[in-house]
Amino acid sequence: MKRNLLLTGSVSAMLFAQPALAQDNAELAAELAEMRAKMAAMAERINTLEAELAEADAKADAATAEANAAAAQATAASETAATAVAAAEKADSGVKVAFKGAPEIKADGGWSFKPRGRLQYDVGFTSVPSSTGRNDGFGSEARRARLGVSGDMPGGFGYKFEVDFAGNDVAVTDALISYEAGDAEIAVGQMNNFQSLEELTSSLHTSFIERAAFTDAFGFERRVGAAATFSSGDVLIQTGLFTDNMEDLSNKNWSADGRVVFNPKAGDTQLHFGGSVHYSDLEAGETVRYRQRPLVHFTSERFINTGNLGATSEFGFGLEGAFIAGPFHGVVEGHWQNVNLPMGAADPTFFGGYAEVGYFLTKGDTRGYKGGKFDRTKPANPVGEGGMGSVQLNARYDRLDLSDAGIVGGTQDGYFLSLVWKPTDYTMLLANYGKLDYSNAVHPTATGDTDYNVDVVGVRAQIDF
Predict the structure, then answer these.
(1) How many domains does the chain have?
(2) DSSP string for 210-243
(3) What is the Rg, in whole angstroms, of the alpha carbon atoms belonging to the chain?
(4) What is the mean pLDDT of residues 206-219?
(5) Domain boundaries, position 395
(6) 343 shares a domain with 233
(7) Is the pTM of this model over 0.85?
(8) Is the pLDDT of residue 14 over 50?
(9) Residue 73: is it exposed, middle or buried by C-beta count within 10 angstroms (0-12/13-18/19+)?
(10) C-alpha 330: how far from its chain's center?
(11) Which of 124, 131, 147, 170 would you call most buried, defined as having the most Cβ atoms within 10 angstroms of its Cβ?
């Protein structure tokens, strides 16, 4: 009975569970179908992504190839450029360009080339006794306007050539060829001969608007000839044989000059001691004339003048002394000029000389010196570099006596002041005042007086390269 009841219950449970199982299978089949659809879509997406990835890989490989090709081209171009630069450097090997007012080009083998020039413009006035009838008042001129070149050549040779265009005239100033061997230098051509520290110092570096009176009065000038210079340590020896200035050739005048300089240093002080001799043999019938302007060149008036003197020769000698100690400098010179007159006449000896002191008002500045003469002043604090340049104050006594042995050419005693401002190495403004005291002047006043004064003011603007 119990067994039958159990069997009957089991069959009844199975009969009631059949519909539920069938329903679960249907849901499972639906889910499986949905899952298969999703998996199919996923597979299709994977296939699409794999295709896109393959295309991207292909593009990346192409870009990499192009980049490698560009890098190779860049490397080749860089190597070519490096080769070109090396070739250019090799071609320009040894060439150097420096700027010293103008480009100075130097190359291996001893070559060099430099253009050079200067411009000096002077203005001012002179005041003379009106009754002398001499011109005075305002004056101006282009004192110097020079252009030229200089340089060196292989083998120790050098050259210099300059032309001056001032005064509407074209005149050759320096025109020379030189040869240097050790301590010696030989020069041939037109050059300054060796007669005075003041004369040999360039007009660019003098402390007054004009050189000392005797240098012009005694006819110191450039002449054509041959010269030799020997320099060793503190000793400088200069000597030469000359004819006349290039403009005055050809004639039979000739001269011989010699100069010796001892220029040691005592601590920081530069010393200068020198002496010179000059002999000139003049062609028969030649005359000489000694005269001088009152300080400035823009006036043509001369108040001392020997007039023309027949002469067979000239003999002169001079002494020089100078020092430079920081901002201070001092210099003194004297020169005696003897003239050999014909017909047994007494031979006069004329004298010229000066004494000068100077001081820089600006800190760190000093006067330049090189090769037995004064050289360029280089301001310690130039304009354009935060400074004001150099300012120098100078005072000078200058005497010229042209009266001796019956020749009365007069005497000139000059008392001069100058203020020199150099904004840079190659520019200068200079102002001068001078009082000239004359005795036996050649132009008397209305009352016959030949002893009087002349006042002069001169200003110069200068640039060079």
Answers:
(1) 2
(2) S--HHHHHTT--EEEEEEEEEEETTEEEEEEEE-
(3) 48
(4) 98
(5) 115-151+166-464
(6) yes
(7) no
(8) no
(9) exposed
(10) 25
(11) 124
